UniProtKB/TrEMBL annotation:
SUPFAM superfamilies: FAD/NAD(P)-binding domain (SSF51905). This is Prenylcysteine oxidase-like. One of its GO terms (biological process) is prenylated protein catabolic process. Belongs to the prenylcysteine oxidase family.
Amino acid sequence: MGGRLLPLFAVLLAARLTVGDPEGPAHVDGAPPSKIAVVGAGIGGSATAHFLRQHFGPEVQVDVFEKGEVGGRLATVTVNHNDYESGGSIIHSLNLHMQEFVKQLGLKYRRSVAGKTAVFNGEEMILEETDWYLLDLFRLWWRYGISFIRLQMWVEEIMEKFMRIYKYQAHGYAFSSVEELLDSLGGSGFINMTRRPLSDSLLELGVSQRFIDEVIAPVMRINYGQNVSIPAFVGAVSLAGAQNNLWAVEGGNKLVCSGLLKMAGASLLQAQVNSISPVHSGEALQYQLSFTTAAGTGSELYDIVVLATPLQASVDSGLQFQGFTSPFDELPGNYHSTVATIVHGYLNTSFFGFPDPRLFPFASVLTTESPDLFFNSVASVCPVNISAGFRRKQPQEAGVYKVFSPQPLDKSQLKTLFRSYYSVQVTEWQAYPRYGSSQGLPPVELHPNLYYLNGIEWAGSAMEMSSVAAKNIALLAYHRWNRQTDMVDQRDLMHRIKTEL
């Protein structure tokens, strides 16, 4: 009988901790944490390790667990001795955390190679970029009226509000949930934008249905593999990333991740974390992580744990939560599967209405939503290392192309898009959330000193969103540990910051 009471007592104690205030009895003597674990070494996890080191100082041990490759969804594939981005490939000029990382790590901006874009509806090109900016503007105005100006003003207004996060974070303020973070930036407007379809918001703005179908939908298809029913906030993030002021890292964006881990002095463990369980010692709470490495199994105790890996059922994290009252190992929602196919070959320009490839002027082709189209986009891609004399391959030459599609391409589909090809490399990504269902935003705090980073993706999925979440969690963990409640979920921050100066 006694043997059964002990686990029951542990469960009751865990329940008491969960219901209590979120700071919890983490530590008694005011000592700093000795060990922190981060699970996942993508951009979110590696940025978290970096920010944790900044806030907790040099003494704390930071262990980062990664079962696959450092970089996560930032990855490259090799074609003909050159590497090409197969995952996250573009960064916006307003992404201040990513810019700061590149600067601190001494990385270089990749030289951009100009290329024109077109939109294909399955039968013909309905929108074509030219060499003349004013002509492009005139064509947009002629076809869509002032829809594109209304859209531009809307995106700029949202970005301007979102940029407040950098000021808040520079002053050390943190948020205990994604809702609190969004509310501090754009009030109930931002929260509502996570709950209503993009198309509804744009129609209300006075953007025409034709513009939504022919311009907005193709951008959503290439960025998120989904349609205009995705939430308006995600759509705004996506549209901000469709502008001209974009960049990438010379040598591959994944270099940011490995660089941040090194700069943080974090210990990287190539390991699959199998389980996490709370361990109580007097009033102190720690977490036991059990994991498997190439050498065998092991376990460690940590004061703070950050989970920087998706916990949805569609992504098999392999992670089990044991001894918790809330079963949060499977959060609601699913990730969306997108296939990136890197093809070395000759593009079939006839398919797009250009029988002579020498007359095909486009580097990338986006697509509208059409039942006949089996791909979201096809683009001529440049290697991650661009030499001074590099030039983009002409369509009559064999080039390297990236095709995004909802399903892996079969032989006949490849033959439709390419006259012939030398190699095909397929990466199937659980790339971003499947947007549209109203499951709400996942929690940031799962349990005292146990944090979940990837919930931010349900508001918007991008490298910078993960970096913002990483900074927020590092600040939140620091303030929770030191019981600095006045730095968490504060109202009217713009006014506060002005009076602080």
